[in-house]
């Protein structure tokens, strides 16, 4: 059956997303595996259609039906829409500024798969930055740039415009050298100035965040000025019925 795969026949020559490959790609990559997990997901409460998660393929219809009917419980299932593959061109992202404006065509902002990415979050993040900067250009304001150290959006855009994308790009924590710093709990501090400049915050929200940021700064200062001796630490641990963790060599 694998001979009908467009990957095997050469009809498809490009590389698909690494993290959600087709069933035929999985068979080719892991020929020693005899089983593969399939998840049956109901499309909605108002539909009797089921999405067969893990069965992505662009094989001919007859091949899809034959393979599907080998799955226990789906021997008589009817395919409502056959799987298919889409190959698309993309704009080399090194032709873009960090604002996602095209270097060659002023006023053209690109976001999403056209930049060589894959995934909803990646597309939404680019759309946010491209939309903000397109609006700011119309208003004759300077563009907003997000650095790698400020957010994963910055990591993604920096990777896209400075590195090649031989396969659809996905954002991963491992791509960021600042991943221990890029946490959800400090996002309001990292991106406060930019969100304020863009105009996303109401006066009430600005006041609330400024107060919260000041409290964090003051608490950090307070903690930096606190020091305890080894004896004090051990006495505290003893009072808590804990063993001594601090000992001199």
From TrEMBL:
Gene Ontology MF annotations: flavin adenine dinucleotide binding
PROSITE patterns, per database record: GIDA_1, GIDA_2
InterPro entries: FAD/NAD-bd_sf, MnmG-rel, MnmG-rel_CS, MnmG_N
Keyword terms: FAD, Flavoprotein, NAD, tRNA processing
Pfam families reported in the protein's UniProt record: GIDA
GO-annotated cellular components: cytosol
UniProt domain MnmG N-terminal: residue ranges: 3-141
Cofactor(s) the record lists: FAD
The keyword Iron-sulfur is annotated on this UniProt entry: no
Gene Ontology biological process: tRNA methylation; tRNA wobble uridine modification
TM helices/strands, residue ranges: none
Coiled-coil stretches noted in the UniProt entry, renumbered to this chain: none
Gene3D superfamilies: FAD/NAD(P)-binding domain
Sequence similarity: Belongs to the MnmG family.
Subunit structure: Homodimer. Heterotetramer of two MnmE and two MnmG subunits.
Name by which UniProt lists this protein: tRNA uridine 5-carboxymethylaminomethyl modification enzyme MnmG
């Amino acid at each position: 059956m694998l001979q009908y795969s467009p990957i095997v026949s050469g009809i498809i020559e490009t590389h698909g997303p690494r993290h959600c490959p087709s069933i035929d790609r999985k068979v080719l990559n892991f020929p020693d595996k005899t089983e593969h997990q399939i998840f049956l997901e109901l499309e909605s409460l108002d539909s009797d259609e089921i999405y067969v998660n893990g069965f992505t393929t662009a094989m001919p219809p007859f091949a899809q039906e034959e393979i599907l009917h080998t799955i226990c419980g789906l021997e008589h299932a009817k395919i409502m829409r056959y799987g298919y593959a889409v190959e698309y061109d993309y704009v080399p992202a090194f032709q873009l500024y960090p604002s996602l404006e095209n270097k060659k065509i002023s006023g053209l902002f690109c976001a999403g798969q056209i930049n060589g990415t894959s995934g909803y979050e990646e597309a939404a993040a680019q759309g946010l930055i491209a939309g903000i900067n397109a609006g700011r250009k119309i208003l004759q304001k300077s563009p907003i740039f997000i650095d790698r150290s400020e957010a994963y959006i910055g990591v993604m855009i920096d990777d896209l415009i400075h590195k090649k994308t031989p396969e659809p790009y996905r954002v991963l924590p491992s791509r960021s050298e600042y991943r221990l710093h890029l946490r959800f709990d400090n996002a309001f501090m990292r991106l406060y100035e930019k969100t304020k400049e863009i105009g996303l915050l109401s006066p009430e929200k600005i006041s609330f965040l400024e107060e919260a940021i000041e409290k964090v700064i003051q608490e950090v200062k307070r903690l930096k000025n606190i020091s305890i001796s080894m004896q004090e630490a051990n006495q505290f641990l003893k009072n808590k019925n804990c063993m001594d963790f601090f000992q001199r060599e």
